[in-house]
Amino acid sequence: MTEKAQAELLADVLSRHEDSPNPRLREITEAAIRHLHAFVAEVGLQRDEWFAGIQFLTAIGQKCDDRRQEFILLSDTLGVSTLVEMLTHDGVEGSTENTVLGPFHVPGSPPRAKGESMLVDPDRGDRVVIRGRVADIETTRDAHGREQHQHANEQPFQHWSLTASDLKRRRCSCSGLMAWD
What is the mean pLDDT of residues 151-176? Predict the structure, then answer.
C-alpha cells in the first residue's frame, strides 16, 4: 500500500467523525485513530499479528464483569493510568507526585485517628506501621493534610471480587484515611 493510499484511508476514517456533537470526544477519537494508524504502519503489522491483538483484547473483555475490570489492569500495566494521573494532577514543583489508586483501595474508608489500626478483621499476620507526614513544599505542616493508606491483612482480597455488602462489612480491614486537625 502506498503512502498516498494510507493517507486517503486515514482521511476517510477521520471524516466519519466530522459531525460528532461532542468536540472533545471527536478530538480524542480522531487522535486515537491517527496514532493507531501510525503504529500499524510503523511496525508493519501483519494479519496474524493483528488477529492475535484482537484475540488478546477479546480475552480481556471476556474476563470483565460488574465486579472485575481487567481493562483498568491493562491500563496500569501499560503505564496509561499513571500518565493520566500525571496529566490530570500536575503538581507544584517540589511536591509529591500523585499516584493511581492501588488494588486494595476501598472508596469511603472511614477516617482513622493517629495511631489507630486500619485492621477490622483480626488476623495472626505481622503488623505494619505506616508513618507519613503531610507538609507544603516549604515543609510546614499542613493543618488540613490527609494521607490515604491501603494494605492487605493476612488474607488479602481483591475488592472487585466482593459484593457491595462485602465491601461495607470489610471496608476497614485494609484501608484508612488519616487526617489531622
Answer: 45
